[in-house]
TrEMBL record:
Protein name, as recorded: ABC transporter ATP-binding protein
UniProt source species: Streptomyces cellulosae
Signal peptide start-end: none
Compositional bias (Acidic residues): 543-557
SMART domains: AAA
Amino acid sequence: MDASSSPPLTAQSTVAVELAGITKRFPGVVANHDIHLTVRKGTVHALVGENGAGKSTLMKILYGMQKPDEGTIAVDGEQVSFSSPADAIARGIGMVHQHFMLADNLTVLENVVLGSEKLYGIGGAARKKIKEISDRYGLGVRPDLLVEDLGVADRQRVEILKVLYRGARTLILDEPTAVLVPQEVDALFANLRELKSEGLCVIFISHKLGEVLSVADDITVIRRGTTVGTAIPSETTPRQLAEMMVGSELPTPETAESTVTDRAVIEVRNLTVFATGGGSLGFEDEPSAGGLTEFASAGEAKRVLDDVTFTIHAGEVMGIAGVEGNGQTELIDALIGTKSADSGTIAFLGEDITPWPTRRRREQGVGYIPEDRHRQGLLLESPLWENRILGHVTERPNAKGFWLDPKGAQADTRRIVEEFDVRTPGIDVTAASLSGGNQQKLIVGRELSHDPKFLIAAHPTRGVDVGAQAQIWDRIRQARREGLAVLLISADLDELIGLSDTLRVIYDGRLVADADPAAITPEELGSAMTGAASGHLEHVETATEDEADAGPEDEAR
């Protein structure tokens, strides 16, 4: 690693993009300070740093969403000034945001051509171009399906295609592997290598340092808003890179002991949920997605959750592994009460809560970390202390009797900010002003602050850095030791294996196998999620009466 110089440039490695002395200030915050970044053509250039280090702000500057207060931008050796993303797109720069910029009520084709109708129109020529790009990079996009019917991973593919459709030569990918299983990551990296071979370059932002080291040609590290050095992937380990990001040595993780008890907290029996038509994932040639891709016709009822049975005990984390779109979202909706089950029951601490509304479930001790913090977990234009109230409007310290208690909520927001290391200039700034990782820490702090008995944790560390990830894991482990029951749904297979006491595989809306977290590898788990067999899996045909009556000695494997 070299903490002071950039990678050497040769005549064969021409500079595509160069940022010099970039500084950006917001009220009370210096997001970027004198940042330097040089990206070579035909390379993947990784940009890493802690949450709030300034990565997203820097990329928004490059993409024309923000103007720097100081510094210069050069593209293909020519100094430029961007006033909008349209200016950046015109110079061949495209960005796929961590939180996607798609219109749910439009089709894939309409989203791709929106704002670029002059390129290929909105009809046959556009469809032909979309198919050409889709086939060339293996995206498998079906242009006529509504975006609202797509899973998170599939929306990402639409975003990548949208950028390529506009002729991007430099692609900014913000956390592109956050929702992908290992096989899909391999496919994405193969696509990136194809882009490189054609002289395109990719700026790759990720907190998965192993992936960064495997795909990047060059790595730039920023810390607290400024460039602190570069790393050569072949000469660097994930731990060294992480310590470079945080500026100190990382603690060695402790060995966790089992905390599973015999007290059932959540008992789900024969839970079935139907969806009506059009629920295909929207992508061709995608066997990994399971049977949910194959609705017979629009309007046909489809079991998106099929006869699901499980029990989670106090002190137990049960992980659910599955490719996006195999029923995880419907399971979450049924458990939190935002969607009614078509059949089956849900019992909480021995009481049937199947007919309960969401508010009652929340008030009785069901916590919820949503899979999409922007759409489901935050009011982005509201201050942090108002976001602290969400989901807990009737509970202390947010309320006194029938009345809201702003002072109580504000005081507790300050506690959460300090205790969960939410980096912010104050509690009156909007949630939108925080980095994604700090938004996530605020949500985790909010949910754990009400001492839930059962926590639904959907992708709890998506988009957070290694330090914040460790903090969130420690908080979940601590709450588990105190008797919390957790349903963990995550695309991070290391997270699933590392946190879970029991691990189930969901495929086509059914729990099809049990895995031993102590024995299975991420690669084996990834294969199981696509329907393949593994030596460390116990395959389950149906939820039997014996399973429904099983005790912790049977389920806490």
